[in-house]
Write a structure and sequence with these properties.
The protein is α+β, with helices and mostly antiparallel strands and 231 residues long. The protein has 8 helices and 5 strands; from the N terminus they run αββαβαααααββα. It has a 5-stranded mixed beta sheet with strand order 1-3-2-4-5, with helices on both faces.
């Protein structure tokens, strides 16, 4: 009698293997879909605006805040500052002393440069600019530096605190509120920041003496630079 070879029995099923294969298939589909969406987004996303050329930047503009008005100007000292910056606060008393000492020969100019890492720096600049429109720039700036330890570094808006300072300074609050809300006030601050960025400002305070960006190491060096420029 002729024998026939036995037919091979089907391989035993492996449920765990089937699950793994299914998982890999699903993951592959997800990755593929993600790549498709990435391609769509990157091809349809508008290009970022071109940076403003440095040639269009101005160190001092007609509406810049000049804190001294010497009869005969020997030099200009421009400071880009942030009212929430601790280094700006530390430098403020020295700058005030230098204004008293050299203000009859050097024009001291302040410009806004709110840093993005400071939650209330832009709000503080708005408060100062709104105060400046009523002739109280220096008073509000000094108040913010004086009280910085109380409001600086907080994540919630300090606009109400700054409004209280404006009331203490005796400002017309209807005009103050209108100035804070006005887009023109924000544009004024943005213009300063844009000029600073185009001129190479990356932190605060940054000083320019007669158009030259200063690298300062000591108070004595700073004073000597001003002495030389004021001759």
């Amino acid at each position: 009698m002729k024998q026939t070879a036995a037919e091979p029995s089907p391989a035993p099923t492996d449920p765990a293997r089937k699950v793994r294969v299914a998982v890999w298939i699903i993951l592959g589909l997800i990755v593929a879909a993600g790549l498709v969406w990435y391609a769509v987004l990157t091809t349809t996303k508008p290009a970022p605006p071109a940076p403003q050329p440095a040639a269009s930047a101005e160190l001092v503009r007609e509406d810049s805040h000049r804190l001294t008005a010497p009869a005969v100007e020997k030099a200009q000292l421009v400071e880009f500052l942030d009212f929430e910056c601790e280094s700006c606060r530390a430098a403020h008393p020295l700058v005030e002393d230098l204004k008293q000492e050299y203000g009859d020969r050097i024009t001291f100019v302040n410009r806004y440069f709110p840093l993005p890492g400071h939650r209330n720096s832009g709000t503080a600049a708005l408060a100062v600019e709104a105060s400046a429109q009523q002739g109280k720039y220096e008073q509000m700036a000094a108040k913010l530096f004086e009280t910085q330890p109380e409001w600086g570094g907080k994540q919630e808006s300090q606009a109400a605190v700054f409004r209280g300072f404006a009331q203490e300074l005796g400002l017309d609050m209807a005009k103050y509120d209108a100035a804070v809300a006005a887009e023109a006030t924000r544009d004024r601050i943005r213009k300063d920041a844009a000029d600073g960025a185009a001129l190479g400002v990356t932190g605060t305070p940054t000083f320019f003496l007669n158009g030259k960006k200063l690298t300062l190491d000591t108070e004595e060096q700073f004073r000597q630079l001003l002495t030389d420029a004021a001759r």
